[in-house]
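Subject: Interface between my chains keeps coming out wrong

I've been trying for a while to get a sensible model of this assembly. When I model each chain on its own everything looks fine, but I need the whole thing in one frame so I can look at the contacts. Pasting all components below, labels as-is. Any help appreciated, I'm running out of ideas.
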Amino acid sequence: MERSFFARNPSTLIFITILAVFTLGVTLLSEGLGVDVISTSMVKTLGKTLCLCLIAIAMDLVWGYCGILSLGHFAFFGLGGYMIGMWLMYERTKAIVVSATAGAPLPPTPQEIRDGIGTQIFGVVGGAEIPPIWYFADSLFAQLALVVLIPGLLALVFGWLAFRSRVTGVYLSILTQAMTLALSLYLFQNDSGLRGNNGLSGLQNLPGAENVPQSLISIYFLWASAAALALGYLLAAWIVGGKFGSVIRGIRDDEARVRFLGYHVEGYKLFVFTVTAIIAAIAGALYYPQAGIINPAEIAPIASIYLAVWVAIGGRGRLYGAVIGAAFVSLVSTWFTGGQAPDIPLGFYTVKWVDWWLVLLGLSFVAVTLFAPKGIGGLFDMLSGRLAPQRHGADLGPDQGSFREKEAEQ
Amino acid sequence: MSTLLEVSGISVTFDGFRAINNLSFNIGNAELRAIIGPNGAGKTTFMDIVTGKTRPDEGRVIWGEKNISLLKMSESQIARAGVGRKFQRPTVFEDQSVFDNLLMALKKERGPFDVLLYRRSAQDRDKVHALADEIGLSAELPRKAGELAHGQKQWLEIGMLLAQEPRLLLVDEPAAGMSPAEREHTTNLLKEAAKTRAVVVVEHDMEFVRRLDCKVTVFHEGSVLAEGSLDHVTANQEVIDVYLGR
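Reply #2:
Try treating it as a single job with all components included. I did that and got this:
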């Protein structure tokens, strides 16, 4: 019997402890259950940040560990959001329609209620019919299943086609980006059945919980997001901790070699791609009820590129690095773009952070890539003394990584 | 002696260049064979064809007792059928420990779900330790493979091949960049391996081939020029002309 899971992955326990302390702290300081230091909107921002950390873990699994630079994971995130949003919006509108007709002399027929819902939801795109894809929208259970199924199936089919043709590297990135763009453009159409560029709104109102104040709902979502993040972290640590992790890191470093060891590389890639798509979808399903609105712009390729930037800045190839990157960059981004960062008057020009934040982010991305490829997570190596040995002098052998002159003399 | 691998009449053309030209090659179950030949003779392409990396334009590659054609199988299927390959450059997973490298190569179920649910048994650990002993890397097990010296990486890769328990080992220039002592160790490893399985060694270094003391096949311009003991082929006038006499 080998050592236990936690003994082999000490970072897991530390991570979950920090996450628990954070969640408890926010709860105690919140408006809903605590001493009202942190506003409800801030609690929602923090809850959303936890969801972004979860999708960052997914991105780290697929990119940092398996070497697939997917620029499509925010599409799965958005699809997850749409799936839960359909139920939220449908049930909420149904409640409104039912209460609006409550005073009528004759109780409304189911068909009248359905027509009312259709007009309410789709009036904005000039329709009144409820499209067939909303067939399950009145069932929470079915829509929750679809959160997993739709993005999972899309990833499975897309991944199967792409990996089977042995598309790799930058070409695969372009392909995933094309998929994301196509999906987003499709959803922008009014007749896509998901309200075009209006998207789905009012998602913060939970049907059946009208009497629960938002300050409490925000706390519940914070807890749910924290729990999902903890479970996602455990799952990811378990996947990469064993021999499977060994194989996918092997695929990242030398795909052909893994193939000649007898592993079916495409199967592994497909597995990782699909599992991470599902994790991303779950993160999205928790994110959008806190954001309150989802529209196709959220799915646009730029979102997935941000995701890659977060993971790179945080440190890919280590799970906590991805979490740190997502939390740090998205919170700093909220601060800069929220107008809270003070402008810098230069006399001839005033640096407005709302405009210049993206430039700063881009520069930090370039700087991290060039000078600190391990990202912020690399700082922890210094703490734990896991620094790579200093290797000066010329190579002794014909290959990189062989003993170098000075080492050989020691 | 029964035949393990039978390659007959294969040809392959890259952009009009005929890399392999009607080549035939057989090897038995427990045999050591050296392939020599000048650059561009098709040695590496031959290995690419056997391992499924390159598809020949014509010809047959028949494997094992059941006479399965390797041409319809993918690289990973061929590897699982029992063909192991060592590349010219040592290709080990530098970011991972020597132990993990060997464990990954150990003959086990290769499906994603099998690997995901895999639990390391004491038996597997012992196997890895035994292999490390054989290749002289016992002390290096916890180190990252990238930190190893060049020769040690070559052995690690041979160790990974042995861990796969292949029935046929294809070894491309194992002695490149090795010191004389390391070469001797490598020779012994290969000779030992050839007692229980077929081993094909591609090598430029005649001294190394002489030490292997086995049947030699000479490739030239994509086909077999001569075959036999080293003394036999080195006495062949054609071989001297194209290869040795230069």
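Reply #3:
Confirming on my end. The first strand of chain A starts at residue 200 and ends at 201.
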